[in-house]
Specification:
Length: 311
């Protein structure tokens, strides 16, 4: 027997309307949203580190200013997303504890190192490019606060993607050494960026239900496919080679077909055993500890202000 509340929820979903924080929702819907939104927030916050690594060494003042602005945008996206998750009844402290204790997931992609300046280009072009592909459909997610947050986030991501493309384009028009550096960065980020979309559809336990609830609009493989189709012409303009000898255009489906992704590597990274997992968490933990006095001071200030208004 289905309750009136549940019937209303189902109707809202069926009619492409939005679920808002005070609306009734099934526990499992709430749970999967907290899971996805908090993972997304953690990804933005941990994702500041690979690029933060280059702020002090950007090759010009202009590049430094752009990179600082980008990394700040990522912090903003993280805070936005934590706020969206909080509307579902989870506190910021709970989410932060899960992140620094190593229990929470965040995107696999941020566990790879950034040894050269060209990595800033490859991250913008490939990682932000993948993020846009994945996140544009999330602007229509059935949960209001998440969908609305994604609108602004996507606008900023498209600027990030272009600045990455432009870094690579500049390098590709440079010396032989600079071209090699750009190609090397593309070689290292290409496969991990394809894996960002998540496991193949037949190994994606959450996709079917999330699509029924209209949180996700497309499957992991569909979005990955869309992304490759976007990359091929852009790689041609850049003059870089995508490091997949099996990549080819399939006339019948009208789509590019990619080679085999190394899923063992992906699952190892997700389990915490990627090249930088330990370093990323350690850095986050230290920053959290070193920021304790700021949180204490803010709480104390808020306490005194509330005494003043009572008086
Ligand atoms: N890494 O059943 P599914 C950015 C987990 S972009 C780690 O398919 P779902 C911008 C998944 O959580 C990056 N874990 O799961 C930026 C699940 O585990 P669970 C962040 C992954 O949720 C750029 C299990 O595998 N973007 O930050 C990954 O339906 C540059 C089974 O998977 C988002 O989070 C992975 N790559 O689909 C920032 C977008 N993939 O939770 C800085 C929003 C899967 O059951 C610099 N999220 N897993 O324990 C989503 O769209 C979805 O959550 C997916 C996964 C597509 C990521």
């Amino acid at each position: 027997e289905i309750s009136d509340e549940e019937r209303l929820f189902d109707e809202l979903i069926a009619n492409e309307q939005r679920i808002e924080p005070r609306d009734w929702m099934p526990d499992a819907y709430r749970k999967t949203l907290v899971r996805q939104i908090s993972q997304h927030a953690h990804s933005e916050i941990i994702g500041m580190q690979p690029e933060g690594n280059w702020i002090t060494r950007a090759p010009s003042l202009k590049r430094k200013a752009i990179l600082m602005a980008k990394v700040q945008d990522e912090a903003g996206h993280g805070l936005y997303l934590y706020s969206a998750a909080q509307t579902l009844g989870t506190t910021r402290d709970e989410m932060m504890d899960q992140l620094i204790s190593g229990k929470a997931k965040y995107s696999s992609i941020f566990n790879y190192p950034t040894p050269t300046w060209a990595d800033m280009g490859a991250i913008g072009w490939l990682v932000d490019g993948a993020a846009i592909c994945n996140q544009v459909p999330l602007c229509r997610a059935s949960y209001g606060p998440y969908g609305r947050a994604m609108v602004r986030v996507c606008k900023e991501e498209s600027f990030h993607q272009r600045q990455g493309f432009e870094i690579l384009l500049t390098l590709m028009q440079g010396t032989e050494e600079q071209r090699a550096m750009a190609q090397d960065a593309v070689n290292r980020w290409y496969w991990p960026s394809l894996a960002m979309f998540g496991p193949p559809d037949d190994q994606s336990p959450n996709s079917a239900q999330s699509m029924k609830w209209k949180i996700k609009r497309f499957s992991n493989d569909e979005l990955r496919q869309r992304f490759v189709g976007m990359l091929v012409p852009q790689a041609e303009i850049l003059g870089v080679t995508l490091p997949d000898p099996d990549l080819h255009f399939d006339e019948e489906s009208g789509q590019y077909v990619i080679g085999e992704i190394d899923w063992d590597e992906f699952f190892e990274v997700v389990r915490g055993n990627g090249p930088c997992n330990a370093e990323r968490l350690e850095h986050r933990r230290t920053a959290h500890e070193e920021g304790a006095w700021v949180r204490e001071a803010a709480a104390e200030y808020a306490r005194k202000q509330s005494l003043k208004t009572k008086a």
